Amino acid sequence: MAKPPEAPRPPVEPFVVTLNRLSDVLAPLAEKTAHPRELSELPEFQRAVGALSGPQSSVALLRQYLVGDNWPLCCAALAVLRQHPERNALYSGVHAQLGKLRPWALYFALDYMIALEPRPPVGAPVVVAPEWWAENQVIPYLFRHYFAQRNELGDAAEFGDYLGSKNCVAPRQIAALLQKIEHPFAGELLKQLRQWHESRIDRAFLASFGRLWTADAEEKLLVEPEAWREALDQAEAAIRHVPPHSVMVTGEPRTGKTAFVKLLAMRLRREGWSVFEAGSAELMADQVYIGQLEGRIQRLIGELHAGKRIAWFVRDLVMIAESGTHRGQSASILDQILPAIAAGNLAIIGESTPAGMSRLLQIRPSLRSLLQASRLQPMSEAEAASLAGSVASRFERELGLRLETPVIAGSLELAQHFLGSGQLPGALIDLLKRAAAAALSAQEKEITTDGVVATLSQVTGLPRATFGGPENCPASVTRPYTSTTATTDARRTPSRRK
User: Fold this and answer.
1) 215 with 353, same domain?
2) What DSSP line would sit under 125-159, residue for residue?
3) Range scoring the smallest mean pLDDT among 20-34, 108-122, 325-339, 424-438
4) How many domains would you assign to the chain?
5) What are the phi and psi torsion angles at 275 (to 5°)?
6) Prediction pTM value
7) In this structure, are 360 and 439 located in the same domain?
8) pLDDT by residue (tens digit) across 316-349?
């Protein structure tokens, strides 16, 4: 007897249709829940979680619901991710999406983060806080619950590397949220946020009118003279003092003021400090409307706060004292920054001639107690020759250029006689560096007397015959210079050529 035909099986419902049907039932119920836990207890929600964790689901589908507008299924997808084998690999995408989630979805996202191994820093989700989080009544409560869970797990309140990351929002938005969360972790994170913000440097703002010093090739040729060591120690101690003291480097032209400041900057960099350079002209550039300059100055004071370990190098402090006034502002730039200097919130490094320093103190006598002076005296011939010998060693090591002692002696004579006041060591070292640059351009391996003479001719515009050459150079120029030891008496000995 033939078997009766089997009844046709109902068609298998496509997976997407199943999810849409579950969503249609779940959505109105989810809207009525008073807490995310109520949502997780709904049978309809549990069926959605089961469907999204089944074999027909995929990681791509879970990602789709994470970024979609269907927030109940977004919650279900996050609940699935909590147990998913690839949950760690998906974390960066979830973290980037946190600020766009609805409050209930954020609850499931925070729960997912707790399940990760290793767990991200406690403050990681806080750094993406949009402005509305602080104004929402539910979000601070969700974070209080999240902080309590992390505390029970023995985690410390910290941001890790998330402050300043690509997803990090403005510090004020993070602070606004933390101030609304009633948990000790919020206070600790707020403290860390403030410390980070105080140490943060807005490089784009500073670069818009000045420059931050960085290590360069010229630094490799700088030598720290023994005669400056004590003054450098004192200047470094002044800047690193808590709170810092400002420093003024004074000396006649070519005594090495700028080199002194660069050596000081190199020392400070080893201690985590930076140096920013801008003068009055740079500060006032493009500031055409009333209040613009004052706003830039006040922002600059904040960006150069001593807590950030950054010092402001000003070449023209006299100009700073005489600039910035206008019809609506009687205070100069210096007047506007003086309170920050006096409070130790702003560390200034300036350089000036003795005459310029006297004028500055006449303009603002109060600076006498605010600036620690580092006075540079012209070097003696022996000190300058010794320094040049050290520079010659740097030339050979860094540039592959030889510089013999007789050439140094001849250069010393020429520099004193033909380069302005002939103050040492500036006149000598500048001449040797220019001669080194010329030798490198000519692909030579040695700085010769003839090369120094050619360089001096270019600098002064005088014909080479004025100085002599290797064939007819005066004996005083070509004779070996043997003294390499600096003495106190030598410092006071006047130059042999005036």
Assistant:
1) yes
2) GGGG--HHHHH-SSHHHHHHHHHHHHHHTT-----
3) 325-339
4) 3
5) -125, 130
6) 0.63
7) no
8) 888 888 876 665 566 788 999 999 999 999 999 9
